[in-house]
Specification:
Shape: globular
Protein name: diacylglycerol kinase (ATP)
Number of helices: 12
Organism: Gossypium trilobum
Helix content: 40-55%
Enzyme class: transferase
Strand order of the largest sheet: 2-1-3-4
Number of domains: 3
Radius of gyration: 23 Å
Family: Belongs to the eukaryotic diacylglycerol kinase family.
Subunit structure: Monomer.
Strand content: 5-15%
Number of strands: 7
């Protein structure tokens, strides 16, 4: 995981600078205060006084056009060789390579109505090919075809492809579920001996963003700060790399039950159980297994039921899930309704304490 840099940053905060244009109106003061709180919670306050040059940032992040097009064609065609026509016959020795090549995955359903706007801003900075919409490109498709295309040409002697594969970094714009989805797919690289695994930075667009908080990326993204995206990409390109523990989980269900698992769980045809486990009762004749990877925590019971319900609610009615506040309200109401159905409204006082 990519962690924000802790040294070499300015401590100047825009919230402390003076103004010569007279006093701010109350509404403008509140708006500015809210924006600065968002910036501080996101961990960007130390970068507020640093000017990030757009051209210099693009130079460090932007992959050569032939590699961008080859990668995207390989993903679209689901064929590692799908982008071969873009590679120069004369080689790439004279092609400048970026210091910190970057791929951004963005979940347009996260962040309320700001997801598409964020996507547009990112594409202007680092090209359309390097900003992947999760509605169109799944993380495993990038790993199996796009990144594999770069690996293929790196192994064939393309110098720029080799440098990019070695130094590439990933940014995920979404909630904890989206981050976990991408991390799980990148885990295939380690399992298949395709190191190094690219480090991952986070633009927190979800409701809780606990994983983002754990690594210093904050609990929300300051959409109102126009230079926030440049600061974020700068941090992601120079931040130190930290290790993240992960756990493999297997869920066993009686055969025949219909399930629609989230991205973090995939159906497994067969699975070996730990012989030291104590299993109460008899196993059913037919068993379905689902397996996946989790990071911060794995929920079981009512908490998982509410999160699972919100996942379907947002897919079916995205216009009602327009941001963290509305999403949290849905979670509170869903919890209340779930408890009420289980125990009855007359007994709520016995299970809820304020």
């Amino acid at each position: 995981m990519d962690s924000p840099p802790s040294e070499g940053e300015s401590s100047t905060s825009q919230g402390e600078s003076s103004t010569s244009q007279g006093e701010l109106s109350p509404s403008r003061t509140v708006s500015r205060s809210s924006m600065m709180e968002s910036i501080r919670s996101y961990g960007l306050s130390r970068l507020a006084g640093i000017k990030i040059d757009t051209d210099e940032l693009s130079r460090r992040l932007l992959m050569p056009q032939y590699l961008r097009l080859a990668m995207l064609d390989s993903i679209t065609k689901k064929d590692v060789d799908g982008g071969d026509q873009h590679f120069p016959s004369s080689g790439s020795a004279d092609v400048p390579c970026p210091e910190s090549p970057m791929i951004v995955f963005i979940n347009p359903r996260s962040g309320g109505r700001n997801g598409p706007l964020l996507k547009e801003r990112l594409q202007k900075l680092i090209s359309e090919e390097q900003v992947l919409d999760l509605e169109d490109v799944k993380p495993h498709e990038f790993v199996r075809y796009g990144l594999a295309c770069i690996e293929k040409w790196a192994n064939d002697g393309d110098f720029c492809a080799k440098e990019i594969r070695q130094n590439i970094r990933i940014v995920v714009a979404g909630g904890d579920g989206t981050v976990g989805w991408v991390l799980g797919c990148l885990g295939e690289l380690n399992q298949n001996g395709r190191e190094p695994v690219p480090p991952v930075a986070i633009i927190p667009l979800g409701t809780g963003n606990d994983l983002s908080r754990s690594f210093g990326w904050g609990g929300s993204y300051p959409f109102t700060w126009k230079s926030g995206i440049k600061k974020t990409l700068h941090r992601a390109s120079v931040g130190p790399v930290s290790n993240l523990d992960s756990w493999h989980v297997v869920v066993q269900m009686p055969g025949g039950e219909v399930a629609d698992p989230p991205h973090s769980l995939k159906a497994a045809e067969e699975c070996s159980l730990d012989k030291t486990l104590e299993i109460e009762g008899d196993l059913p004749d037919k068993v379905n297994f689902y397996e996946g990877v989790f990071y911060n925590y794995f929920s079981i019971g009512m908490d998982a039921k509410v999160a699972y319900g919100f996942h379907h609610f947002r897919n079916e009615k995205p216009h009602l899930a327009q941001g963290p506040l509305a999403n949290k309200l849905y979670g509170r109401l869903s919890t209340l309704v779930t408890v009420a159905v289980r125990v009855g409204f007359s007994q709520l006082a016995q299970v809820i304490h304020v």
